[in-house]
Design goal:
Blueprint lengths: L2 E3 L12 E3 L8 E4 L5 E11 L27 E4 L7 E4 L4 E11 L8
Antiparallel strand pairs: 1-5, 2-3, 3-4, 4-7, 5-6, 6-7
Bound molecules: zinc ion (2 copies).
């Protein structure tokens, strides 16, 4: 089983140019670099991971990050299986997770731009 850093696309425009703009101590606000929509990532626990896995290196501070639904650690990585919908795992407590977007707020378009 191989784990990868979370990768998300903008829920508004579909751009993959998304970065995490805050800190886990504060919130999980992300910003789309294309349309400036902001959103947060959240997880839901759907099971337990029993397979052995290697803990990947910490991703960059501005790469997409989500809190574990169970232990709230920002140590959630994607399990990539070709053909299957992505699942996520918390490397701190081994919860099996799904990822959701919350607080989606498209940028206000100003008439003068
Ligand atoms: Zn966007
Ligand atoms: Zn956890």
């Amino acid at each position: 089983m191989t784990l990868f850093p979370i990768s998300v696309v903008c829920p508004h425009c579909g751009s993959g140019d998304v970065f995490y703009s805050c800190k886990p101590e504060c919130c999980y606000n992300h910003v789309c670099n294309t349309c400036y929509t902001t959103f947060e990532l959240d997880t839901t626990r759907v099971g337990e991971v029993t397979e052995i896995f290697e803990v990947p290196p910490e991703p960059d501070a501005d790469s997409p990050t989500a809190p574990c639904a169970r232990c709230h650690e920002p140590k959630v990585f994607a399990i990539v299986n070709s053909g299957a919908p992505p699942r996520y795992v918390c490397v701190a407590c081994k919860a099996l997770l799904t990822l959701e977007y919350t607080e989606i707020a498209p940028a206000q378009t100003s008439p003068s731009s």
